[in-house]
């Protein structure tokens, strides 16, 4: 059977003697799928609709033990078929590797963009008060000793004080009023 590997919707409709609307409906309902380039793979058409009508049916080789498999004609046909299958699989593998490389490149691009996002807007901080600072530095462990309290793990102490955002003035929220009280009670 000599078939192309990908078909447009129009070509697939012609091959299977179906309307394009039927194919589009099956694509929309998820029965049939298209590749990213808009073409439909022949294996997908086979899965959904079976063998096409306009293509000659290939006579299948009977592999029963009665048939003599030692003839040179049988061996040559088998070798040719196997070579064709190997070539087809190599092409499919190359396409899959290409898709994977493109997907990895896209992932790398997206990760780079995520890392480059702008920092969040700084909140105003209350800087009138300063936190009391002690004159003694935190004790550093001596080299060669293990801190049993922290199981040998040490962390660096931040050198600058953390600032806490404090609003300058907060007005109390007025009590909520019902719908009718907005019209019949004085504003206040």
Indicate the structural class. mainly alpha
Shape: elongated
Helix content: 25-40%
Tell me the series of helices and strands, N- to C-terminal: EHHEHHH
Helix tally? Answer: 5
Number of strands: 2
Query: Average pLDDT, to the nearest integer?
Result: 75
Unreliable residue stretches: 125-129
Kindly estimate the percentage of residues that lie in beta strands according to DSSP.
Answer: under 5%
Rg calculated over all Cα atoms:
37 Å
Biggest pleated sheet: 2 strands, antiparallel
Instruction: Trace the largest sheet across and list its strands.
Output: 1-2
Give the CA-CA distance, first to last residue. Answer: 88 Å
Would you spell out the secondary-structure blueprint of this structure?
Layout lengths: L5 E2 L1 H8 L3 H9 L11 E2 H8 L22 H44 L65 H4 L4
Describe it.
- With 188 residues, the chain is mainly alpha-helical.
- Among the domains are: 1-58, no CATH class; 73-117.
- It has helices at 9-16, 20-28, 42-49, 72-115, 181-184, and strands at 6-7, 40-41.
- A two-stranded antiparallel ribbon has the order 1-2.
- α1 crosses α2 (20-28).
- The longest helix is centred in the middle third of the chain and has 44 residues, at 72-115.
- The chain is elongated, with a radius of gyration of 37 Å.
- The termini are far apart.
- Residues 125-129 have low confidence and may be disordered.
